[in-house]
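Project standup — Tuesday

K.O.: blocked on the structure for the chain from last sprint. Re-posting the sequence here as requested.
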Amino acid sequence: MPRVDPTAAIRGFIAKFDPKVARQIRACRGAVRKLMPTAIELVYDNYNFLVFGFCSTERASDCIVSLACSARGVSLCFIYGARLPDPDGILQGGGNQTRFVRLDGPATLKGRAVAKAVRAAIAYGSTPLPVGRKGYTVVKSVSAKQRPRRDAKLDLPKRRT
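H.V.: unblocked you, prediction finished:
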């Protein structure tokens, strides 16, 4: 895929969502960026989700956490969450690798338990985060076919009574 202007592309990806979810996506993305300012952000506008991966390199396998965005909201995914300690019991999911936390907004990211889980995920990574430079964004893929990004219930016309 040829490189595209990430700012314009992301603006378009987020515009597909309901305004409330779009605000949540922008706020949570900014909050994760503050937690991991040197991370390389990999963006995937896939069939199921708009995903922002925060990685130590441009390889998806070096992703530490990601934001998975759907019409229902945003989750913080811990790519190797099944291997992380979870003394507070916040990590959801039962797969072999990934765990997640549903985000009500950026305030959830500031909670002690989530911040501790993010630090553990950073420490677990096999490649450390870059030091001494600001991270950057790469749009990795855009699927031609996607699930609706808006909640169908919100798009129904109002019934006349």
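K.O.: great, moving the ticket to review. The chain has a mean pLDDT of 87. Helices lie at 6-15, 19-35, 106-110, 112-124, 152-155.
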